[in-house]
Amino acid sequence: MTVTTFDESERLIWAGRAAAYAASFAKLCAYPVPPLLDAAGVGPDVRLLDVGTGPGTVAAAACARGATVTAVDAEPTMVELAVKAAPAADVRVAALPELPFADAEFDAVVANFVLNHVGRPQVALTELRRVVRPGGWIAVTIWATPPAPGQALIGRAIQAGGAVRPPHLPAGLAAEDDFPRDESGLRGLMDAAGLREATCETLRWDHRASADEWWSGPAGGSGVRRAAGAEPDTPRPRRDQAPLRSVQRGVRRR
């Protein structure tokens, strides 16, 4: 399996950014964790793989349910935080599109907002299917489109700061790898990856964050700003504290 230019840029963008992410955007991404684990049937003694664990939010919640948890992330600083958050889990550095696990090794696999960060989502889902046992569960979340205010806020802040994306960084997935971020597009992706009996659910929640939280996290000190080419001393655009509404889609497979 080939790592794409998009994959490489994502790993560069997030390199060393675990602390900034954990202090900001990770709080928003934590909201769907309970329904994500419910969708995967995670409970006592379930062998769970958490792909793209980040700071270990999902892994810690799964351990609290009594699951036997393995968690991976492409970014070593994320793995360091996940080890602290979920000391009972087996946490290691690994990434899609190739996972270092045997076929059918897990009862369930979850990936919280990970498909948004891989260059070939269909290939990634096929790999998740490979490592889950027959009759097991796969549960994933993605950001829906059009982007919710919280997502659009970051782009507006970057634009207001006068940042320009470097030409060598891809603006998105290759056309042949992209898919519509809606229920029909997600179902099509599931079918192409060999998954069946998929169900989709849309979750909505409000998240309130201060301007300082977002600037010091994803919009400022994080790789999002670095990828857009902004310098550390870029003047901060004026922003007020405001609720950020986000929409998420969950999928599960039996």
Keywords:
254 residues, alpha/beta, 7-stranded mixed sheet, globular, disordered C terminus
Structural notes for this entry:
By secondary structure, the chain is of the alpha/beta class. Helices cover 35% and strands 22% of the residues. It is built from 11 helices and 7 strands. Strands 3-2-1-4-5-7-6 form a 7-stranded mixed β-sheet. α6 links the parallel β2 and β3. The chain is globular and about 50 Å long. It starts with a helix and ends with a strand. Residues 219-254 have low confidence and may be disordered.
Outline of this structure?
By secondary structure, the protein is α/β, with parallel strands linked by helices. About 35% of the residues lie in helices and about 20% in strands.
Q: What percent strand? A: 15-25%
Structural class: alpha/beta
Uncertain runs: 219-254
**Strand arrangement, major sheet:** 3-2-1-4-5-7-6
Q: What form results from the Cα inertia axes?
A: globular
If you average the pLDDT, what whole number results?
80
Task: State the separation between the terminal residues, measured CA to CA.
Answer: 25 Å
Q: Treating each run of at least 4 consecutive H or I residues as one helix, how many helices?
A: 11
Order of helices and strands: HHHHEHEHEEHEHHEHHE
The proportion of residues forming helix, as a percent range, comes to 25-40%
Rg, nearest Å: 18 Å
